[in-house]
Write a structure and sequence with these properties.
Order of helices and strands: EEEHHHHEEHEHEHEEHEHHEHEHEE
Structural class: alpha/beta
Shape: globular
Number of domains: 2
Strand content: 15-25%
CATH superfamily of the largest domain: Enolase-like C-terminal domain
Radius of gyration: 19 Å
Number of strands: 14
Distance between the termini: 16 Å
Strand order of the largest sheet: 5-6-7-8-9-10-11-12
CATH class of the largest domain: Alpha Beta
Number of helices: 12
Length: about 325
């Protein structure tokens, strides 16, 4: 590691227009609002992207302040290992951690899977998201995406079965997973789980609010349940293991690729399945997760498909297969 101090070369807010409205149970968006970071040390540069998420108590101001404090604290010798105790899990640590991964790869002239001591990842199949709309509109969206192997259906508490039936009609051969984003009660989950299984839904993501998911302790779901908002880091597995069959690993939740790798290994050790997910962002936000995507049961890295225009170079997604990032993009 260089003895030169770590410094922030660029830290800026960016707003990327989407190709269509992205609607989930907590609201709708027309732009991906992200924070771009580029770090410098010893003549090498490394960049990353994160999404401050108000649902987790984050703002752009708070995340920027955390990033500046971390860069100062890491100084000349601190790196990814030291970062884990400098910042808590979240968007700020994700940006710094992934930028350090990129910086270290550039400094050593190696790729990110080599830095991790892993095999070169193979392309992974990502879901394509069908956002909340009327059943007719969701049927039409599913028909346009019917060639995709896996579709992720966003839902709220309204018209759950009508919407999923419409998607199934539009895409009769696609694997379906559904995501309630904490919008249901235990009673609603109990009423829709069996019909969703009959519609060949493969997984239900975060049906209950994270603060209320203790009710899942005694619920035996006919469709596997996946923790998203309920699982951020390894410490959450103790609670989640008795409530869910799967955890969704997102870098903005784990605080970067370093903890994400550890979370995947710990989840597997507990017998849990793994989904690799993302916040809404550009290819730069998705790129580090391509290291763990091939080993996941489900991959949700379709952010670039939602961009009206992506970063260049961006990730190539061909026939739902997410390719490896070019070194200019990440690692």
């Amino acid at each position: 590691m260089s003895s030169d101090p770590l410094s922030i070369d660029v830290l800026r807010r960016e707003s990327w227009p989407l190709r269509a409205v992205f609607a989930i149970s907590r609201g709708a968006r027309t732009h991906a609002n992200v924070l771009y970071l580029r770090l410098a040390r010893g003549g090498s540069l490394g960049h990353a992207e994160c999404t401050p998420y108000r649902h987790y108590g984050e703002t752009f101001d708070s995340v920027e302040a955390q990033i500046r404090a971390a860069a100062s604290a890491l100084g000349a010798r601190g790196g990814r290992a030291e970062l884990q105790s400098v910042l808590p899990a979240g968007a700020a640590r994700n940006a710094v951690d992934c930028a350090l991964w990129d910086l270290d790869c550039k400094a050593r002239a190696i790729r990110f899977w080599q830095l991790a001591g892993r095999a070169r990842p193979s392309p992974a199949t990502t879901v394509e998201t069908i956002v909340i709309d009327t059943p007719d509109a969701m049927r039409a969206a599913a028909a346009r995406a019917a060639h995709r192997p896996v579709l992720k259906v966003k839902l709220d508490a309204q018209d759950v079965l009508a919407r999923v039936r419409a998607v199934r009609e539009g895409a009769p051969r696609s694997v379906l997973v559904v995501d309630a984003n904490e919008a249901w009660t235990i009673a609603q989950l109990a009423s829709v789980a069996a019909p969703l299984r009959e519609l060949s839904v493969a997984m239900i993501e975060q049906p209950l609010p994270a603060h209320a998911d203790a009710e899942l302790e005694s619920f035996r779901s006919p469709v596997p349940l996946c923790a998203d908002e309920s699982c951020h880091v390894r410490a959450d597995l103790e609670r989640c293991a008795s409530r869910y069959a799967m955890v969704n690993v997102k870098l903005d939740k784990t605080g970067g690729l370093t903890e994400a790798l550890a979370l995947v290994d710990a989840a597997r050790a507990r017998g849990l399945s793994v989904m690799v997910g993302c916040m809404l962002g550009t290819s730069l936000a998705m790129a580090p997760a391509t290291l763990i995507a091939p080993d996941a049961d489900f991959v949700d890295l379709d952010g670039p498909l939602w961009m009206a225009a992506d970063r260049a170079p961006g990730l190539e997604i061909v026939d739902s297969k997410v390719g490896l990032p070019a070194p200019e993009l990440f690692g």
